Amino acid sequence: MGATTLALFGLAAFASAVLAQQFPGSFPGNGNGNGGFANGNGGNGFGGGDFDNIVGFNIQEAMHTRRVHGILGTVAFVIIFPIGSIAMRNVPGRFAWVIHALVQMGGFVLYIASAALGIKLTQEVRFGNTSLFEISTINFHPIIGLIILAVFFFQPLFGYLHHVQFKKYGVRQIWSFLHLIVGRLLIPLGIINGGLGLYISNSSKAFKIAYSILSVVFGIAWIFIAVISEGRRSRQPPVAVVEQHKLVSRPRGPHSGSLGSSDSKI
């Protein structure tokens, strides 16, 4: 495995530990730095279950759920998805696409869990008769998250079709470009939506800075390696592909060996 990928995995492990300790648990509040049901230390500020009966839901449980929701979403989009994309281009050998698929599916599972917890919150947390989806100042976060989730379900299919078609023809087909474009749109959109989640949660300035730094580090690494890989791809000589008993010249992909191995890198 490439040194860059190993270094990013190490940084990811460290970042995940930091996120688990620091992710805020408060709810949207009045803009003064405290959530509507939280004090400055992350507690609910009311000291007991009596207020839970008034608002109609368990505040501490809801804050814990949202904390886990935020951690899972952050790890998926800020760390796992960029690393999976980098691994596709940086890991040598014919099984690079397998590593890419496994890492990305792991991130997808984390995001599904994060989205499920987010949906749980929107169902349980209500302000009077108003759900979180009906509050215009915060509903953009769950709406964007659900759109991302729906589109992401097509990514494994696009990736599989790309691999099969590239193995057969030796060049990118429509599925390749769909997989590339969708992935390159969803990752930054997910990172931005995570930042919006921090905004509506009135999280601390320190955590917002930490989230921004992680996003920049992994984002720049992802973009840099993608640009370098595309540059190398454009300079590669063509390869010979047997297509319907004809010898056809096709552009060579990065780190390619025999057709059907790492040629399917996108």
From TrEMBL:
Keywords: Electron transport, Membrane, Signal, Transmembrane, Transmembrane helix, Transport. Its main location: membrane. Residues 1-20 form the signal peptide. InterPro entries: Cyt_b561/ferric_Rdtase_TM. This is Cytochrome b561 and DOMON domain-containing protein. The chain crosses the membrane at residues 68-88, 95-119, 139-162, 174-200, 206-228. Residues 8-234 form the Cytochrome b561 domain. It is found in: Membrane. The keyword Transport applies. PANTHER family: CYTOCHROME B561 DOMAIN-CONTAINING PROTEIN-RELATED (PTHR47797:SF1), DEHYDROGENASE, PUTATIVE (AFU_ORTHOLOGUE AFUA_8G05805)-RELATED (PTHR47797). GO terms for cellular component: membrane. Residues 245-266 are annotated as: Disordered.
